[in-house]
Amino acid sequence: MKDFARAFYFSKKWQDCRAGYINHRRSIDGGMCEECRSEPGFIVHHRVHLSPRNIADPEITLGWSNLEYVCKNCHEIIHGHCGSEKNSSRVWFDANGDAHEAPLKKA
Measured between alpha carbons, how far is 27 from 21 in angstroms, rounded to an integer? Predict the structure, then answer.
């Protein structure tokens, strides 16, 4: 969470909006990920990412048309934390069992 958005994400308005959106998605399809549709949703994601310029715009921050309920894997892919494959790992283990950070794949 970025510093400029910290107060927003802890606000009652966001908590209520998030809970309402999750309940809405659960009533539609049980709360499945809106991207892959094969995993349960995990996080309410802003399609237009929040920035210092739009954090005060309720259409961006609280408008359901800018939200989607996504699984953890899809959320990481959306934000570029994984490679393009859904099951890409950020860590790999060598023959000795030692963990190594995997390089991020570029799109």
Answer: 10
2 CB neighbour count, 10 Å cutoff: 12
List, for residues 5-39, the tens digit of each pLDDT value. 999 999 999 999 999 999 999 999 999 999 999 99
Cα 65 to chain centroid distance, Å, stands at 15
Tell me, what DSSP letter sits at residue 30?
S
Q: What angle do CA 99, 103, 105 make, to 5 degrees?
A: 140
Read off the tokens for 28: 């539609």
Task: Please state whether the predicted TM-score (pTM) of the whole model is above 0.85.
Answer: no
Task: From 11, 3, 4, 17, select the one nearest 55 (Cα to Cα).
Answer: 4
The Cα–Cα gap between 105 and 47 comes to: 22
106: Cβ–Cβ under 8 A, 6 or more apart, which residues? none
Q: How far apart are CA 81 and CA 73, in angstroms?
A: 9
